[in-house]
Design a protein that fits this description.
- By secondary structure, the chain is of the alpha+beta class.
- The chain has helices spanning 2-10, 13-28, 39-44, 61-74, 86-97, 158-169, 175-190, 204-207, 226-229, 231-240, and strands at 123-134, 140-150, 172-173, 194-203, 218-225.
- It has a 5-stranded mixed beta sheet, sandwiched between helices.
- Belongs to the GTP cyclohydrolase I family.
- Homopolymer. Toroid-shaped homodecamer, composed of two pentamers of five dimers.
- Its EC number is 3.5.4.16.
- Pfam families: GTP_cyclohydroI.
C-alpha cells in the first residue's frame, strides 16, 4: 500500500527521494508540523498536474498500473468492462481528495474586516461538515467541526473558516492534528483573543475494518488564548457550540 501511494503521489523514485530529503531538512530546522503546506515540498513531490484537451488531469501510466496492481491483488480483474476505466477514476478522485496539499489554507484569512459596528464578542460557526482520509489506512473520515474565535480588532467572512477546515481536511490526516492545525492557522493569521475548535467524526478504519464498530463518534478539541486560560470564557464558547 505504501508503494502504491508513492507511485500515486511521488512521481517516481527520484521525486520520492527529493521529497524525503526536503522533509528531513525541515525537521532539522525544528519544524513541528510536517503536514503544513510548503511550496518547496509541493514541488518536490511532483504535485503539478498536466491538463488534457478534455479538461481533465492526465493520469501518468505508472499511476494507472499501480491501481491495476491493487485491483488484481484484491482478487479482481482490472481488464473487465466494469473496471477498465477505474484506474483513471481512482487516480483523479485521489487528486481531489488530497487537493489540500496544493495550497496554504491560511490564504483564506488574508482578507479581513475592521468595521464590525463595535462587535467584540465570540464568533462561532457550528456543525461544518467535512470529509478527510486517515493517514494510517487511507479510509474516510467524516464529521462536523465547530470553530470559534474572539476577535481582537478584525473579523473574516464566515465562509473562510469553513475553507480553512476543508483545506486541512483534504490531506491525509489524523483527527487530533486536523483539530490543532485549524486552530493554529486561525491564531497565526487573525491574532484573535482566543480560538476554539471542536471536531466530532466517524472513522472508516474503525467502521469498515478491524473492530467494525458503527455509530462511534470521536471528539477532539483545541483551545487557544482566552478559551484555554479562562474557564468561564471556555464554558461560554462550548455552550454556543452546543456542547455546554
Amino acid at each position: 500500500m505504501r508503494a502504491l501511494w508513492s507511485v500515486l503521489f511521488g512521481g517516481g523514485a527520484a521525486r520520492i527521494r527529493s521529497t524525503i530529503a526536503a522533509m528531513s531538512r525541515a525537521a532539522e530546522r525544528g519544524s513541528s508540523q510536517m503536514n503544513v503546506y510548503s511550496p518547496s515540498l509541493a514541488a518536490a513531490s511532483g504535485m503539478a498536474d498536466v491538463i488534457g484537451e478534455d479538461g481533465k488531469v492526465v493520469v501518468p501510466t505508472e499511476v494507472e498500473d499501480a491501481i491495476r496492481t491493487l485491483i488484481r491483488w484484491s482478487g479482481d480483474e482490472p481488464e473487465r468492462e466494469g473496471l477498465i476505466d477505474t484506474p483513471k477514476r481512482v487516480a483523479r478522485a485521489w487528486r481531489e481528495y488530497c487537493s489540500g496539499y496544493a495550497s496554504d489554507p491560511g490564504v483564506h484569512l488574508s482578507r479581513t474586516f475592521e468595521e464590525v459596528g463595535g462587535y467584540d464578542s465570540v464568533v462561532v460557526l457550528r456543525d461544518i461538515p467535512f470529509q478527510s482520509h486517515c493517514e494510517h489506512h487511507m479510509a474516510p473520515i467524516t464529521g462536523t467541526a465547530s470553530i470559534a474565535y474572539l476577535p481582537r480588532d478584525r473579523v473574516v467572512g464566515i465562509s473562510k473558516l469553513a475553507r480553512v477546515l476543508h483545506g486541512f481536511a483534504q490531506r491525509l490526516q489524523v483527527q487530533e492534528r486536523l483539530t490543532a492545525e485549524v486552530a493554529q492557522c486561525i491564531q497565526d493569521n487573525l491574532n484573535p483573543r482566543g480560538v476554539a475548535v471542536v471536531i466530532e467524526a466517524q472513522h472508516g478504519c474503525m467502521t469498515g475494518r478491524g473492530v467494525k464498530t458503527h455509530g462511534v463518534g470521536m471528539v477532539t478539541s483545541r483551545m487557544l488564548g482566552c478559551f484555554l486560560d479562562d474557564a468561564s470564557t471556555r464554558k461560554e464558547v462550548l455552550a454556543l457550540m452546543g456542547r455546554g
